[in-house]
Amino acid sequence: MQQLTLGLLAIGAGLVVGVALFVPFVAIAYRRRGRLSPGRILLWVAAVIYFWAIWAYTLLPLPETADISCVSPSLNVFAFVDDLSGALSRGHLLTDPAFLQLALNVVLFVPLGFFLRVLGGRGILVALAVGLAVSALIETTQVTGVWGIYPCAYRMFDVDDLLTNTLGAVIGSLIALIVPARHRGFVKVADPGAPRPVTKWRRFLAMLSDYLGAFFVAATLAIGTQLLLIVVGADELVQAGILASLVGTAGAALLWLVVTLASGQTIGDLAVRLEYRGGPLPEMLARFVRWLAGVGGYILLGAVPWGLSGIVTSVYLLAALIALFTTRAGRGLPGLASRRELVDDRTPVEE
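Given the sequence above, the corresponding structure tokens read:
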């Protein structure tokens, strides 16, 4: 049950960080690679979750200070060789605790080497160095009692863990060689300034960036407001939660409105370099309609009272998705409402 809890904690923390970094991640990918596939998104999400899983499984759960049992470090280099020999002599290798611990130390760092090569384009030497550095950081955190938070180490520092963890990272880097070279690392586009095809997937990423970005901004502002109210002692406002929700909703809506009116693009549009152009409406009115028929409308409908916001926003989101996949180049509701076309923002403006 504890292992399941730690796994769920890692997944939850990874998803939160993933939402926070999604918009800059999309923007960087489109400027460096010119594209972003669903598979690469899943790999990055897996990498973030893996990062949190390492710390969750090596440091958590944090015990109460009064309950800890101090453990001494193990400084016997290559002791794992004796453990492995003993496991082989006893038979039943796959169920032997010594072998399973050794295998876990190796397997735990295999994804690190894999991600370094596939996502970062780094080879064996970098995998070896990073694997050793990360393992050393974890072991040092353990031996110092989480850098002095505890009076002594509650988990054993084992010098052999540095070797087995590093070996795992190197193995992961070798396994990543099966991934075709064109899918590894940051492959820059030949001409970053050249327009690229406008696809419905690209438009979907822009919309997803807007909705996830707005959700994160609204949640951050709401939590910050609640904390401020707690500090000033406004208990009634804290319990009601109305002010915090209002600040979060208004802040996100205003941010996206200002960006859209100033640039003609939402934050999601800017991330994937898309832009609405043309149409019969005056420019500023068209920009406002683009905001209102997109993420702006979604944010405002989320503030509908009487418990209807969930239903209304779900219907709106469904309509937005249907319009996205049924309109030309994925113009969606903003394109239909503003009667504008969707283009790459690097496309020259027609005189």
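Residues 200-232 form the longest helix (33 residues). Try to locate this feature in the token string yourself.
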